[in-house]
Design brief:
The complex is a heterodimer of chains A (468) and B (436). With 468 residues, chain A is an alpha/beta fold. Helices cover 42% and strands 16% of the residues of chain A. Chain A is globular. The termini of chain A are far apart. By secondary structure, chain B is of the alpha/beta class. In chain B, the strands form three sheets. In chain B, strands 11-10-9-8-7-6-13-12 form an eight-stranded parallel beta sheet. The chains are: A alpha/beta (468), B alpha/beta (436). At the A-B interface, β4, α6, α7, α8 and α9 of A face α2, α11, α13, α14 and α15 of B. The structure holds iron/sulfur cluster.
Chain lengths: 468, 436
C-alpha cells in the first residue's frame, strides 16, 4: 500500500458524502479503505466513468505490496498473498495461509473420496466461528493423463473446495484442466523445463500458476519475470521446501529473502505469494507419526514466516488442529480488542435457579467459556471481571483477578443475588480456587469451585448443581 | 521413428527465423527435415513453436507437423485451431538475478547471559550455557546467531497433577526431585533443569523456605547442568523461598524465577547479586511493563546487564499465543534497534501449552467439532508448536515438560540455527515421489 493517511485517500474519492457505501462520510470510507475493511468497489459513484482516472490511480495506491491471487470460485474461493507488512504487529497479516491437503491419482477411489470428505468436512470451533481447511491438492503419481483426469473428476464431484493440480508433466495438467478449468484451480507447477507448455495452459484457462524452482532464487525470479512478460499475473512462488538439514535452513532464508524483497524493498517483479510444501516431510520420515509431526513443524514455521499457501498430507486431528490454530494465531488481527466489556451477561435464558459463573474479560477466555456453556445448552449468568484483558490463571497470579474486583463487577452491573437468584452462590473458575475464602468474606456469597477448564462445566454441573 | 518432410516445404517459412533454436530438428542432406520423435525432440520442437517471438513460424511448423500426421494437438491439450490469440511472446526465459539487502537497522546486539558456573568460576556445574547475543531476528541471514536455543525441563518438589501423556514419563521419579532431575538430563537430553518449589505454596504444603532449599541442594548434587530455581508463584512467599534457595546455591549462577512487579522484586534481585545468580524478569504480555521492570532491576536494584533474562509470558497455542508471539517479536525488534531496556535473552514457560484443552482433553467438549483423535499425540505437538512459534519470535530458553516435544523442538530449532547436517535431497520430482 502506497498511502497511509485517510486524507491522502480522501482526495481520490467523490467527496459527496452520499452514504451509498454504508459509511456516513467519504472520510470514514477512506479510513476503512486503509484498514482494508472496505474495498473501493463498495463506493458505487467512483465506478462511474467520470472518476475512472481517480479510480485507477487509487486502486494502484491501495494495492497490497504482495500480489493477491484468487483461486477457486464461489463461496469456497481463496485469496492468497495480499500482505503489506513484515510483522503482524505493524498492521495485520492479510489472507490467512491457504491450507491444502493432498490426494493422489493412484489412490483407490474409496480412499480418495474418503480423504476428500474428511478434508472438506473438518471443522474446529474457535472464538465464535469454525476453523476449516481450504483446498485439495491432486497429485499425479501415475504420470498418466487419463488416470489424473479421472481422479480430478472424482474430487470435483466430491467437494466444492478449490483444487491444486500437481504434476510437472504439462500433458497431465492439461488432462486435469479438461474436467475442472471452470473451478479455477491452481496449476502446480511451471519449471524451467516445462514453462512454455504450462504458461500456455495458464493463459488459456486463466488459472493461477505456481512457479517452482527448488533452492534457486535466480531461476525463480527468471520464471516470474518471464511469466509476467507473457501476460500471466496470477503467480505463486515455490522456492522449494526442503524437509531437513542445511537445505531446510536455506529454505527458511529463501522465504525471508523473497518477502523482504517484496515488502521492504518493493521489488515488484518478485512480490508474489509464496508457497510451502511441508508434505516433503514424507520423503525423509518413514514412521507416519514422525512424518506427520515434522510436517506440522514445517507447516508452523512457514505459517509464521511468510508462507501464503501450503500442501500437507496428514489429515490426522493431531496435524489439522495445530495447523488451523497456528494459522489463526498468526492471522488474527492484532487490532481487534483483547478485552470484552466487563459485566454480567446472560447466556441462554437464565432463571433464579441458574448458576452464576465467573470469568475474566480476556476476549479469548470469555468466548471460550461462553461457547462451552451455550454449546451444551446451559442457561446461566456469566460474570466477566475486568482483569485488564488477562486470562484466569495469569490474572490470579498477577493480582488482576481479586475478590474486590469480583464484587465490583456485580455492584457495577446492579446484579442483586437476592433478587436474581434462589441460591446466593457464585462459581469460581478452578484456576481461581485460591480466592475462595476472600470472595466469601468480601461478597458474603456462597462460593463453589468450578472445573479448571470450562469445557468440563457440563460434567461438573451434573454432580455439583444445584447446590445442596 | 522419425517423420520426414521435404525441406522445400519449410525452407521458405524458416528463412527469417533463428534456425539454431530448432533443437531436435536436424537437416538430413539438403532436402529432408527429420523430426526426432523422442520426448526430448518433441518437447523442444513444441517448445520452439510455443515460444517464438513472431510465433508465425511455430504455427506453420505445427500445422506442417499436423499435416504429416503428427499428433501435436495432444502434446499439451492444445486446441487444434485457434492458436493465434494466445500465442506467447517468449522463445526463451528472461534471465534474471535475485538479490536482497540485509537489515541495517539492527545495530544493537542482544545481551549475552551465561547460566551455570564451573569450578573455575566458583561453582560446581560441568559446563555453562550462554544465551542471547543475537544481532538479528532468530535464524535470519543478516547475522549469524551466536548461541543456539536451550531447553530446561521442569522438575517439581512434590508430585503434581499433569496431563496423562506427560505424567507417564515421570511416574517413577515423582517422589524424588533428585532422581527426577537425573532422568530429564540423562534420558531426555535436558540442557538445564528447572526445580519448581511449588510445595512452598501456603495453599499446598506450605513447606518452609529452609526445607525447600534442601531440595535445591539435592538437585545440584544429582546433576551437573545449570539449574533454574522456581518458586510457587505465591507473591508473598516467593521472595523468601528464592532468597533461601539462592543462598544454598551460592556461586552456581542459577536462574531465579522470577522477579515480577507484583512481588518484592528487590529482595530477589538482592539475593541474585549477593549469591551470584541471574534474575528472570517476568511480566505479563505487556512490553511497557517489561521495560519498567528491567529498568528497575538495573537502576534501582543494581543488577548487572549480564544477569537479566526476560520472560514476557507464554500463552498456549489457541489461548493467546498470538499476543505472546507478537509481544516477544516486538521486544526483540526493539532490542535490536537499540532499546537497551529490552535487549535481553528471552525465556518461555512453554509448558503452559499443556493448559490448552486440545493438549489434554479426551475429546472436544463441543459436539459440533470434528473428532479430535487420540490425545496422546495432540499434547506434545501442542507444546512443540507453542515453543517453535516463540522461537521464531526470538525466544532463547524453553521451559518444557514432554520428552518427545523437547526432542522435536530441539531438532527444528537447531536445524534453523544451522547445526544439523544431513544428506541432501532432490525435490525436483517430489509430486510423484512423495509416497504416503
Ligand atoms: S459511496 Fe463513495 S461518494 Fe458516497 S459517501 Fe461513500 S465514499 Fe463517499
Amino acid at each position: 500500500m502506497k498511502v497511509n493517511s485517510p486524507l491522502q485517500v480522501y482526495k481520490y474519492l467523490p467527496q459527496t458524502n452520499c452514504g451509498e457505501c454504508g459509511e456516513a462520510t467519504c472520510m470514514a470510507f477512506a479510513s476503512h479503505l486503509l484498514d482494508r475493511s472496505n474495498k473501493i468497489e463498495d463506493c458505487p459513484p467512483i465506478l462511474d466513468g467520470k472518476y475512472k482516472k481517480k479510480y485507477l490511480e487509487l486502486s494502484e495506491l491501495l494495492a497490497s505490496e504482495i500480489r493477491e491471487v484468487i483461486a477457486g470460485v464461489g463461496e469456497t474461493a481463496v485469496k492468497i498473498g495480499g500482505d503489506d507488512v513484515l510483522y503482524r504487529h505493524q498492521l495485520t497479516f492479510f489472507d490467512p495461509t491457504v491450507l491444502a491437503y493432498d490426494v493422489s491419482d493412484t489412490m483407490s477411489e474409496e480412499e480418495l473420496v474418503g480423504r476428500v470428505k474428511k478434508i472438506s468436512e473438518f471443522k474446529k470451533f474457535y472464538v465464535g466461528a469454525f476453523l476449516k481447511v481450504d483446498m485439495v491438492a491432486v497429485r499425479s503419481t501415475s504420470n498418466d493423463p487419463s488416470k489424473f483426469k479421472a481422479a480430478v473428476k472424482k474430487v470435483t464431484e466430491t467437494t466444492t473446495l478449490p483444487l491444486i493440480l500437481c504434476s510437472f508433466n504439462p500433458e497431465v495438467l492439461a488432462a486435469g484442466l479438461e474436467v475442472c478449468a471452470d473451478r479455477k484451480p491452481i496449476l502446480y507447477a511451471a519449471t524451467k523445463e516445462n514453462w512454455q507448455q504450462v504458461s500456455e495452459l495458464a493463459l488459456e484457462h486463466k488459472t493461477p500458476v505456481v512457479l517452482f524452482s527448488p533452492g534457486d532464487l535466480d531461476e525463480l525470479k527468471t520464471l516470474a519475470v518471464s511469466f509476467k512478460e507473457i501476460g500471466i499475473n496470477d503467480i505463486i512462488l515455490d522456492p522449494g521446501t526442503y524437509p531437513r538439514g542445511e537445505q531446510l535452513k536455506t529454505t527458511f532464508e529463501n522465504f525471508l529473502k523473497l518477502r523482504r524483497a517484496g515488502i521492504k524493498e518493493g521489488q515488484k517483479d518478485i512480490a508474489y505469494p509464496i508457497m510451502a510444501t511441508p508434505i516433503t516431510s514424507w520423503m525423509v520420515n518413514e514412521d507416519p507419526i514422525t512424518a506427520s509431526y515434522w510436517e506440522t513443524v514445517l507447516a508452523s514455521v512457514f505459517t509464521v514466516k511468510y508462507g501464503d499457501m501450503m500442501i500437507m498430507h496428514s489429515i490426522e486431528p493431531y496435524a489439522l488442529l495445530p495447523e488451523v490454530h497456528i494459522r489463526s494465531t498468526i492471522f488474527t488481527d492484532p487490532r481487534t480488542p483483547v478485552r470484552v466489556d466487563p459485566g454480567v451477561y446472560e447466556v441462554g435464558s437464565p432463571t433464579k435457579d441458574s448458576p452464576v459463573i465467573i470469568t475474566t474479560n480476556f476476549a479469548l477466555t470469555y468466548y471460550t467459556v461462553e461457547s462451552d456453556i451455550s454449546s451444551n445448552d446451559i442457561n446461566c449468568y456469566l460474570a466477566t471481571v475486568d482483569t485488564d484483558g488477562i486470562g484466569v490463571q495469569a490474572s490470579v497470579a498477577g493480582g488482576q483477578l481479586t475478590a474486590a474486583k469480583i464484587k465490583e463487577t456485580f455492584d457495577n452491573a446492579g446484579f442483586d443475588f437476592k433478587e436474581k437468584t434462589s441460591h446466593n452462590t457464585v462459581i469460581l473458575p478452578g484456576m481461581a480456587a485460591r480466592l475462595q475464602g476472600d470472595v466469601e468474606d468480601t461478597t458474603g456469597l456462597n462460593v463453589k469451585i468450578g472445573p479448571p477448564d470450562s469445557g468440563r462445566i457440563f460434567g461438573w454441573m451434573e454432580t455439583n448443581w444445584p447446590p445442596k | 521413428m522419425a517423420k520426414k518432410m521435404k525441406i522445400n516445404d519449410v525452407i521458405e517459412l524458416l528463412k527469417d527465423a533463428d534456425v539454431e533454436a530448432l533443437e531436435g530438428v536436424t537437416f538430413e542432406g539438403d532436402i529432408e527435415l527429420e523430426i526426432d520423435e523422442t520426448a526430448a525432440g518433441i518437447d523442444s520442437l513444441f517448445a520452439y513453436t510455443m515460444g517464438q517471438e513472431t510465433a508465425k513460424i511455430g504455427l506453420y511448423l505445427l500445422n506442417l507437423a499436423r499435416s504429416v500426421g503428427y499428433p501435436v494437438d495432444q502434446i499439451a491439450g492444445m486446441p487444434a485451431q485457434p492458436l493465434a490469440p494466445s500465442v506467447p511472446k517468449l522463445s526463451k526465459l528472461i534471465e534474471s538475478k535475485f538479490s536482497v539487502g540485509t537489515n541495517d537497522e539492527w545495530k544493537t546486539q542482544i545481551q549475552e547471559v551465561t547460566l551455570g558456573a564451573t569450578s573455575s568460576d566458583g561453582g560446581t556445574r560441568g559446563h555453562t550455557i550462554t544465551l542471547g547475543g543475537e544481532k538479528a531476528l532468530p535464524y535470519y541471514f543478516d547475522a549469524p546467531m551466536p548461541n543456539r536455543n536451550y531447553v530446561t525441563i521442569d522438575v517439581f518438589d512434590m508430585p503434581i497433577g499433569m496431563a496423562k501423556a506427560v505424567k507417564s514419563n515421570y511416574e517413577d521419579v515423582m517422589e524424588d526431585p533428585g532422581e527426577w532431575a537425573k532422568k530429564v538430563v540423562k534420558e531426555f537430553n535436558a540442557d538445564l533443569v528447572t526445580i519448581h518449589l511449588i510445595s512452598t505454596d501456603p495453599l499446598l504444603n506450605d513447606t518452609p523456605a529452609v526445607e525447600a532449599s534442601k531440595t535445591v541442594e539435592e538437585v545440584l548434587q544429582a546433576v551437573d547442568v545449570p539449574i533454574v530455581i522456581g518458586g510457587s508463584g505465591n507473591p508473598e512467599k516467593d521472595p523468601l523461598v528464592l532468597e533461601r534457595a539462592a543462598e544454598v546455591a551460592e556461586g552456581e549462577r542459577c536462574l531465579l524465577a522470577s522477579a515480577s512487579l507484583n512481588l518484592d522484586y528487590e529482595r530477589i534481585a538482592a539475593a541474585a547479586n549477593k549469591y551470584g545468580h541471574v534474575v528472570l524478569s517476568w511480566t505479563q504480555l505487556e512490553i511497557n511493563a517489561q521495560k519498567e521492570l528491567n529498568r528497575k532491576l538495573m537502576k534501582q536494584c543494581g543488577v548487572d546487564r549480564d544477569r537479566i533474562i526476560v520472560d514476557p509470558t507464554t500463552a498456549a497455542l489457541g489461548y493467546g499465543l498470538d499476543y505472546a508471539y507478537s509481544n516477544m517479536e516486538r521486544i526483540r525488534l526493539a532490542g535490536l534497534i537499540g532499546d537497551e531496556e529490552l535487549n535481553f535473552p528471552m525465556s518461555s514457560g512453554t509448558t503452559n501449552a499443556w493448559g490448552a484443552r486440545e493438549a489434554w482433553m479426551v475429546s472436544s467438549p463441543l459436539k459440533e467439532d470434528s473428532d479430535w483423535g487420540p490425545r496422546e499425540y495432540r499434547g506434545p505437538i501442542w507444546e512443540i508448536v507453542t515453543g517453535l512459534t516463540l522461537a521464531l519470535g526470538g525466544n532463547d530458553l524453553f521451559m518444557m515438560m514432554h520428552p518427545g516435544a523437547v526432542k522435536v523442538l530441539k531438532e527444528i530449532t537447531q536445524t534453523l540455527f544451522g547445526s544439523i547436517k544431513t544428506d541432501e535431497i532432490d525435490l525436483s520430482n517430489w509430486v510423484a515421489e512423495v509416497v504416503a
